[in-house]
Amino acid sequence: MSLTKLNRSAATLTKNRTEGSIVSISGMCVTCVDGCIGMCEIGKSAYRGTEVLYPQPFGIITSACEKEYPVDLSHFTILGTVVGAHGIEADSDKAIFPAVNIETKIGRDKGIKVKMPIIIPGLGSTRVAKVNWEGLAIGAALAGIPLTIGENVCGMDEGSEIKNGKIVHSPDMERRVKLYKEWQRDGYGTIVVQANVEDTRLGVHEYVIQKLGVEAVELKWGQGAKDIGGEVKIKDLKKAQVLKERGYIVLPDPTDPTVIEAFEKGAFKEFERHSRLGMVDEESFIKRVEELRKAGAKYVFLKTGAYRPADLARAVKYASKAKIDLLTVDGAGGGTGMSPWRMMNEWGVPGVELWSLLYQYVKKLADKGEYIPDIAIAGGFTFEDQIFKGLALGAPYFKLIGMARGPLAAAMVGKTIGKRIEEGQIPVYVERFGNTIDEIFITAPELRKELGKDFEKVPPGALGLYTYLKRLNQGLKQLMAGNRKFSLEYITRNDIAALTKEASEISGIPYIMEIDKEEVEKILNS
User: Fold this and answer.
1) How many angstroms separate the CA atoms of 440 and 467, rounded?
2) Domains along the chain?
3) Beta strands 76-78 and 299-304: pairing type?
4) Which of 156, 194, 395, 434 would be 125's cystine partner, CB 3.0–4.6 Å?
5) Which residues face 326 on adjacent strands?
6) Rounded to 5 degrees, what are φ and ψ at 19?
7) What pLDDT is attached to residue 1?
8) Both ends of the chain: CA-CA distance in Å?
9) Mind listing the pLDDT tens digit for each residue in 75-130?
């Protein structure tokens, strides 16, 4: 089994000439022929250079690594039982899966109500997030889950007003916050605003707290896709120049006359905008958390990525000392925007290993009686079985699962179907379900009844996300009912088993053949 794919990928729009004969260590064709036009990544790099660092075509895709890690969530299985019930009376007429409660509350004061244990982590200044925000915000709000506005939104907003180096108005940020808040129901969920180095310098958190009424803010140390700052591509010269003026790293230099001439002649079509590396230390971190609370933040979150174990330990310890409300830890390989492709595949601690270390570190502090924040984990989660396994892996400390690509995909599909309905060009695969919104989207009738005339304002993208989350909602309830766990707090590490010795060794979850040994002996000898 190949653990990684070198020198060719759909992400970089490259492939080998000799697809059946490839050198495993280099990814090159066994015979590299003089005269080849360069379809592989080496070849494309020979004429497009740094463009080939990133997944393409940028702006209309999400991307995540295609590396096959030695251990992943499929190496665990969910255990069911025929005995009893937790959280409900052990009565076959009462212990039915629709009765499972998957609502939870997060934050130090448990003041954030969540309909299901999912949070959408930072979707920021990338074009794919911006053009799909309407579906994401409305869909997440209707489903009652938190949604995070990612880094660099204010800095990237051409309509932003900046005075004395601080943001005073950002139409894009205001639109994103407003969309979510307008569609919130019964106080479920919350809109979270993230900040990196540039955002902090611009005073983005103070702006959204004091001007937009945002209650939850998130400090960002990084993510699972890369160990450098956020990146996007810019197709407009003037915008690239504005961003350089605002303090971003823009490559190549959009103020260089030679670069301007090359861009105008079409030698290249996109500039790269990069954020700076954050520099973490305990004193300044705790100080910043205190500043945000004094500025009016009701909840302060921290998101970190797949950095080395010592950095994970720092995140856990600093979050404990600062009494953070939610700590999100993102495993390697994830990503939604523009991360360097090889970095996305070959950098960082993979999910199962990272989350297992996280459990160990948190338990160590908990055993000493230290404060433990609510914890979310992220890194490629898409379906209900993974959600269950993720929560069980870190029970009782893991409270939410971070999901970005799945929800974004659902919103994009919903939006696309809406467009096809308007154009009268519904694909056969979809048309078999009908040719109207109410026929195609299975949740449309219930939402129409619930929302009344406001249903007409719900965009198809939001319907796509809501419907996808509805599926996850029921699927998770079914799995929990099979384990006789009728509320999230009853999920334990004993609800899953490792299918391989390696998965067991990494996670501390018992190997399937060693589960229940003592109980089995008691039953057989009774």
Assistant:
1) 11
2) 10-53 (no CATH), 108-223+280-480 (3.20.20.70), 231-274 (no CATH), 496-525 (no CATH)
3) unpaired
4) 156
5) 301, 374
6) -60, -25
7) 44
8) 46
9) 999 999 999 999 999 999 999 999 999 999 999 999 999 999 999 998 888 888 88
